[in-house]
Amino acid sequence: MAARAGIVVTGTEVLSGIISDRNGPWLSERLREIGVDAAHIVVVGDRPEDLLAALRFLAGEGVDLIVTSGGLGPTADDLTAEIVARFQGRELELDGPLFDRIAAILRPLMTRWPDLDPKAVLRSNRKQALVPRGATVLEPVGTAPGLVVPPSPEGATGAEGPTVLVLPGPPRELQPMWRAAQETDAFRAAIAGATRFEWRIMRLFGIPESEIAESLLAAERDGLDLAPLEITTCLRRGEIEIATRYEAAAEPFYSRFAAFVRERHGDLLFSEDGSTIDAQVATLLDGPQTRTIATAESCTGGLLAARLTDRAGSSAYVRGGLVVYSNAAKVALAGVSEETLERVGAVSREVAEQLADGAIARLGSDVGVGITGVAGPGGGTPEKPVGLVWVSVALADGRRMTRRLNLPGDRADVRDRTTTVAMHMIRRVLLGQLDDPAEGGGGTPDEPAAGGAVG
Amino acid sequence: MAARAGIVVTGTEVLSGIISDRNGPWLSERLREIGVDAAHIVVVGDRPEDLLAALRFLAGEGVDLIVTSGGLGPTADDLTAEIVARFQGRELELDGPLFDRIAAILRPLMTRWPDLDPKAVLRSNRKQALVPRGATVLEPVGTAPGLVVPPSPEGATGAEGPTVLVLPGPPRELQPMWRAAQETDAFRAAIAGATRFEWRIMRLFGIPESEIAESLLAAERDGLDLAPLEITTCLRRGEIEIATRYEAAAEPFYSRFAAFVRERHGDLLFSEDGSTIDAQVATLLDGPQTRTIATAESCTGGLLAARLTDRAGSSAYVRGGLVVYSNAAKVALAGVSEETLERVGAVSREVAEQLADGAIARLGSDVGVGITGVAGPGGGTPEKPVGLVWVSVALADGRRMTRRLNLPGDRADVRDRTTTVAMHMIRRVLLGQLDDPAEGGGGTPDEPAAGGAVG
User: Fold this and answer.
1) Which of A114, A120, A189, A435 is the most exposed place for a label (fewest CB within 10 A)?
2) B296 and B216 in one domain?
3) Average pLDDT in the A138-153 region?
C-alpha cells in the first residue's frame, strides 16, 4: 500500500501567479518514484494562517508526509520554519553550530557586498539558524537549511500526525536537499509503510499520444497482463514518455510490456533507460572518436546552440554557431546564396541545407545543422504559414537529412519544438540513418503535430 | 476588505506533475485584478473524495468564491459538475435546450469521424447537459458548458457558503469562459463587497533580497507608514521585484514609498511600471530610430541571442549572433586576435571586448555584445574560477561598458544570470550610461552575487 503525502508550495508570488511553481510537480514525481502518492498540492501565500490551514487540511486528510517548499528566506514574510514548528508543537531553538556554518556561507557574500548592512545579515543568519526542537537539519545548499520535523504529542495533530519535510523554494536548493532528506531516519520513518516500487521510463518520438493509448489496448488484446503495472503516458516537448511504476515482483510483466512497445514502435522508441535525447546526442558526439557540431539558426535564434552547450563538457564537441536572423547575415555569415534567397525565399529546403553546409564550412565541424522557419506570430503567408520550419542536418561529406515541419502552438512552442526535432535528426544522422539519395534527399511529407516523425 | 477565493485545479496528470498547471496562476491573477484574494490553489486528482475534501477545506476557510478548473469532459472520471452539485446541495437536471446546443456542436465532429460510436457521443452529450438546479450556465467554448453554482440551504456549508464557478480545463476554453462569468449576476453577487485594489510592481537589479527587507525597515524608521500597503518582495532571475497592492485611498502612501525606494536605490531601480528588462531593451532598440544589435557569445552559447529573439518583432533590430565556443571560432568568426588569446586567455576583458567589436563588424550592427566566461562545472582555476564571466557591450563608435562578474550557482544559473546582467548592461549603454574612458573603460569591482550592480 502506497503512503500518501501532501505538498505545500508557499509564496505569494507563486499563489498570485507572478512566478510559476516548478517544485510541486517535481516533488510529486519524486514522491511517486519512492511509492508515495501525492493526494493534494496546496499553493498558499505568505500569510501564516493560510499556511497553517493548509497543514491542518492535509493532516486531516490523513497523509503520512507533508513536504513544504519555500518561505525559508531571510525576509520577514518567510515564516515556514516557525509555522511548521508551531504546527508540530516544537519550540524553535537557535542551533549554534548551524549559525556558524551559515555565517561561513555569508562571509564571502559580505566581502563581495561591502555596503551590505552587517546587522541585516546577522538577523537573517540568526533567523535561518532557528530549528524546531527535535527536528533533523538538512545542510544548506544556498543559505537556508532544510528541516525534517516529526510530529509530537504537543502538535496540532498529535504524535500520530504527519512528518513535515521543509525545503527551500529555489529548485537548485530544493532538489539536492530532497535527495539528502531521503537519507535521514526521520524521513524514512515517515514513509515506513510505503511499498518500494520500480520506476522505468521509455521515450518515443514521432507519434501522437493517442497512438500510445491504442498500443496499450492492443497489448491487452494480445493477452499481455498490464494489471501489475501502473502506466502513465504523457506528451512532453513533442516526445511521448511512458512512465511505469511496479513492485519488484512484477518485473517479468514489465519486460514483456517493454518488448511489446519495442516490437510495435521500433525506431520511434529512442530511449528505454530514461536517457534524454540531449544526453544521447552528447554521447554520440563525444564518443570514441569525437564528432564536432556547429549550427546556423534563423527562427530559433540560438536556442539550438544554447541547448547543445547546456551540458557540461559540451565544449569538447560544440564548435559554435551562427544566428543568422537577417537575410544579409545568412549571406555574409553562412554563405547562403542571394540568388537562392530571391528564388525560393529564406524559409525553404534550399536555404536550410545551405545553412547546414555553411555552419560546417565556417566552423570547420563534422556535423552542421541549418534551421529556417516562421516562428510567428507575424510573418505567415498561405504558402508559408506560421509553424512552417525547415531543418537540415548535414555531414561534412555532403550526406544529409532534411525535413519540413508544420508545428502547432505559439512562437515559444514553435521555437522549442524545432530544437527537439533537430536533436532527434542529429541523433539519426549520427547513427547513420540518412536520407536515401535515390529519394532525392528525403521526400518529406509534412510532419505530424506531435513534432515530427524523423527518418 | 477584499473578497477571498479558492482555486481547485483537478486532474491526475496535473497532480502527478506530468503536465504543469497554467490555470491556477492565470485565475489567481484575474482574481487579483478584480480585487479578490486567492487564499489557496489546491491541485487534486480525479478522486471524487479528494475534490470534495478540497471544496470543504476552502469553504471552511470562509472564501466567498471557489473556482474549479477541469473535470468537465465526457469521460467517467470527469466528475466536477456532479461533485459540485452535491456539495452545493443542488440536484442535477438535464437542460434540454443546452442538450440540443451541445448536440449541434457535436454533429460536425461526428461527420468528421464516421467511426465514432453514436451511443458514446449521446452519453457524453447528455452528461455535459446535466446542470445543478438553480445554477447559471456558461455557454460551451468547446463542448463542455461552465457553471456558476450558488450555495443553497441544503449545501454542505449552507446558504452562507461560497459560490462555485465551474470552468473547463483547457485554457483556450477556460479563459473566454472566465470573462463570460464576470457578466453573470450569480458571479457578481458572490464577490459583492470586493474592494478594488491598485497593483504596482517595481523592479530593481543589483542588490540582494535581504537589502530590500532592510529598506522596508528603514522606511518605517524614517516614519513612512507602510501599513496601508501590502508589499511582497521576490527574487527572480537575479532581479528583485517589489509588488504592492493597496486600496485607491492609499495612493499617497504608495507614492511616498516609491519615492523612498527611488531615493534609496537610485539607479538600481530600473522599472516602476512593472515593465521587464526584456521589454525595456526591446523598446530602446525598436525606438524612433531603430538600433540594431548583434552578439558574440562563448559560455552562454547562444542564450543571449535566443533571449533577444524571444520577442515577436525582434527581427526588426536583431541582426544575429555568433556562438564562438572554441578559440578557433573566436578568431575565425569574431576576429579575436590569436595573440590576445595566448597572452590573456579566452576569459578576459580583452576577449570580451574584441567579441563585442567583432559582432558589430561581422553583423553590421549598431550595438555588439561579447560574452566569455567559465560556466562550469569544469574549467575553473584559482585565477579564473567557475562563475567568472566577462561581458562587454559596445557601440559602433567604440564606446562601451565592460564588466567582470562572479556568479554563484550551477552551470545553468551562471549562463542564465549572465544573460540577465547583459540585458541590463545593454539597457545602460542604450541610455548612454557608458564607462568613463578616464576610468580606463570602467573600473570593475567584482559583481555581487545577485547578478551584479551594473554601472
Assistant:
1) A114
2) no
3) 92
Q: Which residues contact B319 (CB under 8 A, 6 or more apart)?
A: A325, A326, A328, A329, B292, B293, B294, B363, B364, B365
Question: A440 falls in which pLDDT band (50, 70, 90)?
Answer: very low
Q: Do B209 and A27 touch (CB under 8 A)?
A: no
Going by DSSP bridges, is the β-strand pair A163-167/B400-406 parallel, antiparallel, or unpaired?
A: unpaired
Cα–Cα–Cα angle for B363, B414, B392, rounded to 5 degrees: 35
| CA B257/CA B67 separation, integer angstroms | 34
For cell 478594488, what's the residue? B196
The boundaries of the domain holding residue A382 are 277-431
**Quick one: A312 and A374 in the same domain?**
yes
- Whether residues B13 and B84 share a domain: the answer is yes
Instruction: Determine whether the interchain pair B210/A308 forms a contact, defined as Cβ–Cβ distance below 8 Å.
Output: no
B41 touches chain A (CB under 8 A): yes
- Asked if residue B289 and residue B415 are part of one domain, the reply reads yes
Q: Which of A167, A225, A178 is nearest to A36 (CA)?
A: A178
**Pair A124, A235 in one domain:** no
What percentage of chain B has pLDDT greater than the value 70?
A: 92
B255 interfacial to chain A (CB closer than 8 Å): no
pLDDT of B73 > 80? The answer is: no
Q: Are residues A217 and A334 in the same domain?
A: no
Based on the fold, state whether residues B255 and B378 are members of the same structural domain: no
For residue A40, give the nearest of B88, B20, B83, B46 by alpha carbon.
B46
Residues 6+ apart with CB under 8 A from B370: B295, B296, B297, B334, B351, B352, B353, B354, B355, B356, B357, B358, B359, B390, B391, B392, B393, B394
Q: Do A18 and B241 touch (CB under 8 A)?
A: yes
pTM recorded for the entire structure = 0.80
Chain A within 8 Å of B39 (Cβ-Cβ)?
A: yes
Q: What residues in B contact A22, CB-CB < 8 Å?
A: 20
User: CA of B206: which chain A residue's CA is closest?
Assistant: A113
Classify strands B367-373 and B388-395 as parallel, antiparallel or unpaired: antiparallel
pLDDT at B171: 85
The answer, for A402 touching chain B at a CB cutoff of 8 Å, is no
Tell me if chain B has a CB within 8 Å of the CB of A335. Answer: no
**A378–chain B nearest CA distance, Å:** 7
User: What grid cell was written down for B329?
Assistant: 571560432
Largest CA distance in chain A: 81
Question: Among A346-355, B88-97, B102-111, where is mean pLDDT lowest?
Answer: B102-111
Q: Chain B: residue nearest A22 by CA?
A: B20
For residue B283, is it within any domain?
yes
Residue B175 near chain A (CB below 8 Å): no
A293 by DSSP, 3-state: which?
strand
CB interface of A with B, residues 342-371, below 8 Å: 362-364
User: Is there a single domain that holds both residue B170 and residue B203?
Assistant: no
Give residue A452's pLDDT.
39
User: What does the alpha-carbon distance between residue B158 and residue B172 come to, in Å, rounded to a whole number?
Assistant: 33
Residue A419 lies in a domain: yes
- Min CA distance, A267 vs chain B (Å)? 24
pLDDT band at B109 (very low <50, low <70, confident <90, very high): low
CB interface of A with B, residues 9-38, below 8 Å: 11-22, 24-29, 32, 38
Contacts B314 to A, Cβ<8 Å: 301, 325
Amino acid at B366: D
C-beta atoms surrounding B111 within 10 Å: 9
Indicate which CATH number applies to the domain containing B225.
3.30.70.600
Residue A196: CA atoms inside 13 Å, Cβ hemisphere, count?
4
Domain count, chain B: 3
CATH number of the CATH domain containing B156: 3.40.980.10
Return the closest-CA partner of residue A215 out of A228, A201, A197, A231.
A231
